[in-house]
Write a structure and sequence with these properties.
15% strand, globular, single chain, 43% helix, alpha/beta
């Protein structure tokens, strides 16, 4: 009996040592590595639950923050510190993010961004659509500093450009704001010849590459997904009316 099985066992040993089994083992190892990487990425992402509200002073960040949380209008002042609150995204309250409103003053905004950037799941960059033409260079400068930051580039949080104050007749459209920002960011990219410094004060070792070399900049070249929406934290009826934040709220649900 044993002698009759020997040829079959020998054939099985040859098969186990052959290229077919080796291919299967390589495939299994590749699957295992992919799964572990996926779990690592998902774990890092799930640990980032903050949505940062950024923008220049008077862009309407704080009123937008208040409207999202309570739905009510309130008078606001220029922020000198951060404000945070849990924002429920669904009726059953099972999904939430932490909204963090950061100061927009030039002397404060980068130090507060430095404090919270690692926790950012998403960023809402609020633009004053009425004052945009006058402030476009300052808006682009701040946005450039955000986009070339090493932590932001690595984590690639979803980015929304919220074109606020659309209730005002002279407000610029989201399309025009996108075109002007791409133009200004392209100019900044060209003129920044010195090696930038990261928000933590350490040198990055050379100019950060914003977009694709040799091509005019556009937002599709960034590692994170960038979207634009039009909104109004004040609302078309002023203090007594409802805010127009539907597009922003849908985006928050999507990125949560």
């Amino acid at each position: 009996m044993a002698g009759g099985l020997e040829p079959h066992l020998a054939a099985l040993r040859r098969e186990l040592g052959g290229p077919a089994v080796l291919s299967v083992l390589v495939a299994l190892i590749a699957v295992a590595i992919t799964f572990l990487l996926w779990r690592f990425v998902q774990g890092r992402k799930s640990s980032r639950k903050a949505v940062l509200l950024l923008g220049l002073c008077d862009a309407g960040k704080t009123l937008l923050f208040a409207r999202l949380l309570s739905g009510r209008y309130r008078d606001t002042q220029t922020s000198i510190t951060d404000s945070s609150a849990v924002y429920r995204l669904s009726q059953d309250k099972s999904t939430s993010v932490t909204l963090i409103d950061l100061p927009g003053h030039e002397s404060l905004r980068l130090q507060f961004l430095e404090r919270f950037k690692a926790a950012a799941r998403a960023i809402v960059f609020v633009v004053d659509s009425v004052a945009f033409q006058r402030e476009v260079k300052d808006v682009a400068e701040f946005l450039y500093q955000v986009l070339v930051d090493g932590t932001v580039l690595r984590n690639a949080p979803a980015l929304l450009i919220a074109c606020n104050k659309q209730d005002v007749t002279m407000a610029k459209s989201a399309k025009l704001i996108q075109q002007q920002l791409e133009k200004e960011l392209n100019t900044l990219r060209v003129t920044r010849s010195a090696a930038p410094t990261s928000l933590d004060g350490s040198a990055t070792g050379g100019p950060a590459q914003l977009g694709k070399k040799g091509k005019d900049f556009d937002f599709s070249q960034l590692p994170m997904k960038v979207e634009f929406v039009e909104c109004s934290a004040r609302g078309s009826k002023g203090e007594e009316g409802e805010a127009d934040l539907e597009a922003l709220q849908k985006w928050l649900v999507k990125v949560a």
